[in-house]
Amino acid sequence: METALLIVAGWTSGINAYLTVLIIGLGGRLGWVDTPPSLEQTWVLALAAVAFVLEFVADKLPLFDSAWDLVHTLIRPSVAAAVGVAAAGVPGATLSRPQAAALTAGLALVAHLSKATTRLALNVSPEPLTNLAASFTEDAVVGGLMALALARPRLAAVAAMVAMVLFALVALALIRLARRGFRFLFRQVQGPRLARYGSAR
Predict the structure, then answer these.
(1) How far from each other are the two terminal CA atoms of the chain, in whole angstroms?
(2) Sequence ranges of the domains in the chain
């Protein structure tokens, strides 16, 4: 895997790590691109496919999607780092394993924070349409960028950098709403606990 493809995979992993791994693995399995053999294994593809289906559903549920994002704050960058390490182990790789891991994990963390912030902001709204639209848009961006990366990795890397800036700008614009969303989510989690505590007394 060349560096341009790693850039795309790193950023898209922060949005949807499982779809990213699935597309890379299938691309290598079908001979469309040179990918690490470890990502082409059947059990890896099956696990990525199952996890993608679970995330596809979870990501469409308001509030639950933010809880899912919270859990994945470590998972998405870790998956991205694993992809980087695997890619750096292939003969002819231009980056060392630490360099590839740092690149992909860093890009994934930036993407994840942008996604999580935007979702928290959207969850302040009582209607689910904006949440659904954001989720389908994210899926389309990840799928589109990864498909482009298999054919034109350098072009896809440029597109990924543009998407990174746009997603970050949207997140920054919505950060005040995101704070309200975080407080609302916190109250939803703490409410049942406080109720149980009060009844116990």
Answers:
(1) 60
(2) 3-200
